């Protein structure tokens, strides 16, 4: 095979033979080349032998060949062509890039050399190279041929044909189309042969002058620039120039053609703009995009999609989409993919959702197979686009689990909180989650979910050791991904120095418009990535539920207490007040009937008892209200004021406290008054013989007359001591004490062993303690008397 049909005649159409042993890639290259330049018509051959056969039978303007092919290389192909057709443009287009290959190609006579690249940008480069080499080849004609063309085309071409002397000082020939293209009269140019430079865009003139100099020095030129000042230099021209030499090879003239390529440039710019738009859409970093043939073969894939798999892009191109790595080994899913392709190929818009295999495990995507049609409505391509919705699905699952935990009526509040902490820990990837209560300077772990047993529910630590102190003080969510880096001023806390807490996310819990404590998560390792907005929001949502539930519980407790008080008040009115009232009414009636005033004595005693009951009821009604407004109160001062308000006769007060606590001063004084009255009256009754040590005792008489009567009876004096506890205080006496079997009943409403007592004095004490959130219990004092320990108090300082 040693003859070829040759090249096609000079025409705008460029016929290209592309030889590559990968047929799918050959078809892909042909499609993109024809899209890049509509002048190109690309035929393909799968081997050197097939390429040689095609060249022998048909005419082509340019050959584009791969380098590495079975049996014979692209260089072998080139050398065979050059033996009979030395001027046929030949571009070596290969994925094997090296200086050795490039040098070998150029030595063998390759017109150009281009290395394959990923993406689609280089197809436009290849198309331009093809156009340039073909056009240069077509322009290489002899001066006689040029003159002949001038003569044949001068009256019918739109191109500007021109001929100047070597030094551009003389205009030999130019066509009339010059005036239209350059916007300058021929008379002006004939007057000054270099006047055409005035019609060139100022920014392009230096380049044009260099081209003129090159022509004068014997080098052909191929240049594009802007002309026509009258049109704002809006015209683009393509100039091809050739030096014309004499028999001795000296340049005597320069000639060529100027073509108006404004339309082409406009189209190129539009194409470039469209390609940039396509690129912007195709390479969306948030969307996985693929381009398929109607049968599902992969034509192109964007970088975002490739980031999900461990594979080369070239290995994916040309393969069936159903066999692509994204679908893993799920045969059922692969069948679904093919069905989606077939539906899109029939013109259907096919939405889908699937679980694909990503570099970091399985990911959920949602997208669509979108058919692309031509003017006849035929599907020519399929675009697959989808978004990663794994995080959204995860958030939906977490919110659903959160709802299931909080809505489960079978779970206690602590169990619900523990479930939220476990869910939060799993989402945040941390080792510890806690709901904690802040009381003064103490931090108590109420509910814990942890990876180890380093903390337990009920543990108490100093508030200052924790990062929760910041969240509670600012009443804002605290986010610290790396405490040492982000908050070095907090590294002196024991939480960092002793427990090694290195990251923290916590938010305050509110009850009654005040900070109850914190709901927080932390770990001993710094976060590699910042806490996301979703993670912070999740913790805030959980904390708000905890706050709401605690508030609801607090409201229920208040309601129950109120209902209980109402029931007790109804009982008192119906029983405790009714009896003395009946006695008083009966005594008055007897006195009226008999006119014996001695019958009024029982009435007087009943009225006194009723008066005491009413006083205690009023105090009891106020004592149980939850206290919101606390202030710093000195215990010693309140105790001394309370002592002065109670008839104490010969009793002695010993104050052994210097503490300041946060409390309602008025109700704290009531608490001390009732405890002091109880101690004094208890001791007085013992001294008068009305009760013996170990007998049931009356707690709570508010009758000052009873206290005075008993104290004036000559009984022994009682010493009342008020002292400190680590989290509160105590009130003790050296009286007969309270037997263990009666200690659980002394706070009951109406419980009393004294016929003159109301039985509400110590009930009021307990109500006041509960209203503060304190705890109270009865024990035995060091002297054998009664001791009341009040704990859970917010001690100041």
From TrEMBL:
Domain Response regulatory: 15-131
Cited InterPro entries: CheY-like_superfamily, GAF, GAF-like_dom_sf, HATPase_C_sf, HATPase_dom, His_kinase_dom, HisK_dim/P_dom, HisK_dim/P_sf
Lineage: superkingdom: Archaea
Leading EC class: transferase
Region (Disordered): 683-719
Residue span(s) of domain PAS: 146-219
Protein name per UniProt: histidine kinase
């Amino acid at each position: 095979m040693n003859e070829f049909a040759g090249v096609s005649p000079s025409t705008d159409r460029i016929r290209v033979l592309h030889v590559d042993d990968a047929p799918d890639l050959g078809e892909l290259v042909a499609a993109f080349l024809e899209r890049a330049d509509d002048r190109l018509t690309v035929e393909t051959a799968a081997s050197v032998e097939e390429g040689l056969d095609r060249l022998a039978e048909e005419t082509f303007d340019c050959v584009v060949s791969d380098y590495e092919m079975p049996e014979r290389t692209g260089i072998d192909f080139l050398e065979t062509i050059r033996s009979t057709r030395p001027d046929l443009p030949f571009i070596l287009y290969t994925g094997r890039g090296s200086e050795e290959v490039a040098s070998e190609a150029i030595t063998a006579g390759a017109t150009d050399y281009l290395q394959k690249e990923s993406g689609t940008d280089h197809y436009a480069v290849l198309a331009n190279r093809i156009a340039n080499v073909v056009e240069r080849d077509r322009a290489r004609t002899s001066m006689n041929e040029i003159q002949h063309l001038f003569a044949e085309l001068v009256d019918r071409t739109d191109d500007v044909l021109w001929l100047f002397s070597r030094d551009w000082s003389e205009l030999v020939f130019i066509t009339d189309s010059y005036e239209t293209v350059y916007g300058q009269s021929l008379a002006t140019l004939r007057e000054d042969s270099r006047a055409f430079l005035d019609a060139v865009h100022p920014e392009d003139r230096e380049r044009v002058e260099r081209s003129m100099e090159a022509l004068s020095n014997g080098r052909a030129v191929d240049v594009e620039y802007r002309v026509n000042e009258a049109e704002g230099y809006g015209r683009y021209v393509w100039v091809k120039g050739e030096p014309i030499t004499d028999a001795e090879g000296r340049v005597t003239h320069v000639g060529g053609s100027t073509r108006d390529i404004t339309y082409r440039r406009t189209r190129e710019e539009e194409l470039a703009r469209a390609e940039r738009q396509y690129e912007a859409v195709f390479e969306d970093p948030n969307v996985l995009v693929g381009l398929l043939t109607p049968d599902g073969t992969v034509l192109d894939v964007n970088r975002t999609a490739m980031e999900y798999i461990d594979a080369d892009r070239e290995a994916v191109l040309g393969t069936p989409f159903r066999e692509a790595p994204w679908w893993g080994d799920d045969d059922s899913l692969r069948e679904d993919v093919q069905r989606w392709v077939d539906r899109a190929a029939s013109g259907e818009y096919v939405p889908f959702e699937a679980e694909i295999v990503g570099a970091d495990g399985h990911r959920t995507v949602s997208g669509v197979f979108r058919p692309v049609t031509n003017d006849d409505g035929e599907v020519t391509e399929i675009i697959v686009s989808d978004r990663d919705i794994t995080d959204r699905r995860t958030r939906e699952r977490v919110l659903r689990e959160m709802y299931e935990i909080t809505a489960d009526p079978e779970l206690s509040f602590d169990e619900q909180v523990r479930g939220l902490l476990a869910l939060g820990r799993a989402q945040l990837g941390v080792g510890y989650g806690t709901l904690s209560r802040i009381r003064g300077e103490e931090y108590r772990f109420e509910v814990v979910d942890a990876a180890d047993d380093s903390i337990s529910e009920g543990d108490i630590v100093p508030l200052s050791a924790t990062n929760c102190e910041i969240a509670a003080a600012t009443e804002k969510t605290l986010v610290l991904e790396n405490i040492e880096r982000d908050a070095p001023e907090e590294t002196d806390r024991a939480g960092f120095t002793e427990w090694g807490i290195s990251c923290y996310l916590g938010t305050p819990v509110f009850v009654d418009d005040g900070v109850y404590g914190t709901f927080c998560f932390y770990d001993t390792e710094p976060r590699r990535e910042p806490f996301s907005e979703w993670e912070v929001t999740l913790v805030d949502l959980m904390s708000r539920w905890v706050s709401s539930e605690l508030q609801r519980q607090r409201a229920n407790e208040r309601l129950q207490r109120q209902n209980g008080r109402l029931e007790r008040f109804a009982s008192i009115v119906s029983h405790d007040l009714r009896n003395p009232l009946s006695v008083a009414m009966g005594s008055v009636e007897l006195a009226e009937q008999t006119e014996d005033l001695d019958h009024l004595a029982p009435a007087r005693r009943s009225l006194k008892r009723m008066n005491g009951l009413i006083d205690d009821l009023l105090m009891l009604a106020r004592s149980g209200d939850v206290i919101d407004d606390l202030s710093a109160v000195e215990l010693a001062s309140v105790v001394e004021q309370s002592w002065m308000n109670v008839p104490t006769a010969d009793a002695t007060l010993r104050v052994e406290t210097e503490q300041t606590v946060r409390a309602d001063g008025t109700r704290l004084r009531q608490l001390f008054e009732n405890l002091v009255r109880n101690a004094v009256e208890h001791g007085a009754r013992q001294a008068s013989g009305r009760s013996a040590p170990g007998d049931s005792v009356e707690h709570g008489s508010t009758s000052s007359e009873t206290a005075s009567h008993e104290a004036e009876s000559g009984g022994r004096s009682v010493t009342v001591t008020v002292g400190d506890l680590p989290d509160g205080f105590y009130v003790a006496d050296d009286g007969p004490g309270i037997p263990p079997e009666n200690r659980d009943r002394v706070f009951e409403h109406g419980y009393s062993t004294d016929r003159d007592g109301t039985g509400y004095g110590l009930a009021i004490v307990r109500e006041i303690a509960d209203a503060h959130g304190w705890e109270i219990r009865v024990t035995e004092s060091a002297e054998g008397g009664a001791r009341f320990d009040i704990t859970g108090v917010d001690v100041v300082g």
